[in-house]
């Protein structure tokens, strides 16, 4: 898997870059079939904006964008959004086989005697 970190309008200190890289690597825990992760960090006037682009196999892409006072806090919020998307996608992919729709379920018949109808 490939992780790419790019910055716009400024640079990142090595500690911040390492923090972002570690957070991006942790996304593999939620879905192991990721092909690439791109993180774009942009320094705005009084805040930082982080965008994450995650490519999973079979052409599924996930995108999240967050803004925060520091690049670390914006990255944490952004990773949380991507985690939710990956969890939902993984659940959808792994639990789609073997499901029985409500129309296919036959009613359960109980072996109780029928009550007589009032005359």
TrEMBL record:
Note the superkingdom of the native organism.
Bacteria
- Pfam families, alphabetized: Ribosomal_S30AE (PF02482)
Concerning CDD domains, the annotation shows: RaiA
Record's InterPro entries?
Answer: RHF-like, RHF/RaiA
The annotated region (Disordered) lies at: 93-119
Originating species? Singulisphaera acidiphila (strain ATCC BAA-1392 / DSM 18658 / VKM B-2454 / MOB10)
Query: Under which name does UniProt file this protein?
Result: Ribosomal subunit interface protein
Which Gene3D superfamilies does its entry note? Answer: Ribosome hibernation promotion factor-like
């Amino acid at each position: 898997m490939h992780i790419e970190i790019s910055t716009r309008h400024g640079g990142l200190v090595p500690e911040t870059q390492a923090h972002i890289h570690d957070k991006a690597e942790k996304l593999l825990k939620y879905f192991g079939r990721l092909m690439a992760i791109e993180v774009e960090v942009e320094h705005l006037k009084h805040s930082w904006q982080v965008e994450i682009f995650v490519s999973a196999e079979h052409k599924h892409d996930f995108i999240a964008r967050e803004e925060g006072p520091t690049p670390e806090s914006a990255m944490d919020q952004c990773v949380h959004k991507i985690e939710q998307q990956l969890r939902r996608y993984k659940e959808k992919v792994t639990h789609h086989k073997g499901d029985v729709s409500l129309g296919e379920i036959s009613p359960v018949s109980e072996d109780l005697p029928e009550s007589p109808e009032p005359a």
